Amino acid sequence: MSHVRLTDTRDTQADIANCRADFPALSQNINGHPIAFLDSAASSQQPAAVIETIAEYQRHDHANVHRGVYTLSHRATEAYEGARDRIAAFINAASRSEVVFSSGTTESINLVAQSFCRPMLKPGDKILLTQLEHHSNIVPWQLVCEQTGAELLVAPINQRGEVELDTLIGQLDENVKMLAIAHVSNALGTVIPLSDIIAAAHEHEVPVLVDGAQAVPHMPVDVQSLDCDFYAFSAHKMFGPTGVGILYGKEALLERMPPYQGGGDMILEVKFDGTTYNELPYKFEAGTPNISGAVGLGAAVDYLQSLGMENVSRYENELLAYLTEQLQAVDGIRLIGTAEHKASLQSFLLADIHSHDLGTILDHEGVAVRTGHHCAMPVMDFYGIPGTARASLALYNNERDIDMLIEGLAKAKEIFSL
Amino acid sequence: MTSPAYDNEDLRELYRELILDHARSPRHFGKLPDATHSAEGINPLCGDKLKMYFRIDGENRISDACFEGSGCAISVASASLLTDTVIGLNTDDALKYFTALVGRLAGSRTTDHDTDTGVNLGKLRALEGVKEFPSRVKCATLAWHALKSAIHLDAQPATTE
Question: What CATH number should be reported for the domain whose range is B10-151?
């Protein structure tokens, strides 16, 4: 087998291992140590290419989009719509009109809850979620349930942090009007086997929204192959800026949904006795959008495509294996989230040290991790713990970052006399 | 790898023996069945959750105090030190400790004396290590905000936000 293939892999690994230098924030020291940034699941750092693209746009090309006949407005529109085209290609949407800019995953999910679900929900209807969802894939559904009398149904997880598939599939019936499910769990790292779940949901004519915030930066995502009905993600977790994200929706569904917000840009004609809405995707983009954010997201997509998502995924999986192995070797560690299929992150506890104390001590050693409940309190309740420390990886991390984490944990044990 | 300029001094200040002792073996930990006043302290960002119980007699004297819940070493130690401190005080004096400690940890006071309030913080000074760790100040003050809420009979849980 493939000598050639192995060589290829090594070259790619080298490319990705060198990409750390593309991220200006990662060249600094924190508390006297070169930074080990292990919190990309909360928000990732940005490569110079993204920062420069946004700055260039602000310097030379800014005006409002879809409005002016003058050169700058034309350039801004080209930049904004060009980003949409690149994102559509990146996730393999069938059409650019299926790619709606939002302020992020949270707004994307709220949009679907309010525009797709709210008009059709009635008392007794159900929204099916899982135990491992992020709060932003729980609370929007609770709101729409309060508004309509529908109810939440929650599919359980097992001790490894995997969704109990048989139970979930058994919960699908004609009363379920939406299945809202993560692609990758932000607290546990579990990769959900979406294809099987979506196929089962569709057999019961249940539409599926996927919270893809933790998947898009780490693996190839093809919305047509998944056959999901909606897919939501955020720019700032995939090396783009904050305040912008995407709602992908199947065109037929987006077409029949009423607008989420009213305002400029989402209309064709406004009269006091009625307004005609704009075509997709503009129907869902009321008001002046986050143009520079969208341009930055387009640049982030270019960056990821230059590396290749298959390569990113392979590199990160190897690094995750190293992280898991190194953590397991620490005396007193308890890993939270040990699913068979995982991506990019590991939650853990160390002896009886509270995760905030761990976080403070690790920061002192230059290591940035997230601590607490990770906006997934139902997951913490499931394990009966108040929170965890979470080390999350991105393509710019390397084994040295993980070694620094392990050294930091030794320091924590020393401080706590363990 | 650790450079001498960044030794453990400030970490040691934060996690002093007294703090670790109270975190590991909190005093007055549990429910107080005949509590007259209670309040929750919730830190929504961290998930720290403490419930403080007080028995306050007819002369506004705190005759007993207990707490339960979970939190980091700093918030648990602070709650434990709080119970040690306020038992036997009248509520006005207990609130003076609140004012003195919160003012001191928030960094607005730099003198050694606890100024206006005339309160001697004593072993509560062990909490001063948080001043070098701004994100941890709210851990040290959570229980104290709950004390204030309990005395004032606030219906809402106390937060440090």
Answer: 3.90.1010.10
Kindly state the tokens that stand for B63: 């005759």
> Among A306, A326, A361, where does a domain finish?
A306
Quick one: average pLDDT of A341-346? 98
Residues A272 and A357 reside in one and the same domain: no
Q: For testing the chain B interface, which of A30, A356, A377, A401 should be mutated: the one with the most B CBs within 10 Å?
A: A356
Contact list in B for residue A417 (CB cut-off 8 A) is 20
Q: Which domain holds residue A376?
A: 3-44+308-415
- Helices A291-307 and A71-90, interaxial angle, to 10°? 40
Rounded CA separation B136/A356 (Å): 9
pTM of structure: 0.92
Contact (CB<8Å) B10/A355: no
Where a domain ends, among A306, A331, A347?
A306
- Give, for B52, the enclosing helix (H) or strand (E): strand B48-56
pLDDT tens per residue across span B87-103: 999 999 999 999 999 99
∠A92-A10-A216 over CA atoms, to 5°? 25
Contact B20 A353 (CB under 8 A): no
Contact A257, A116 (CB under 8 A): yes
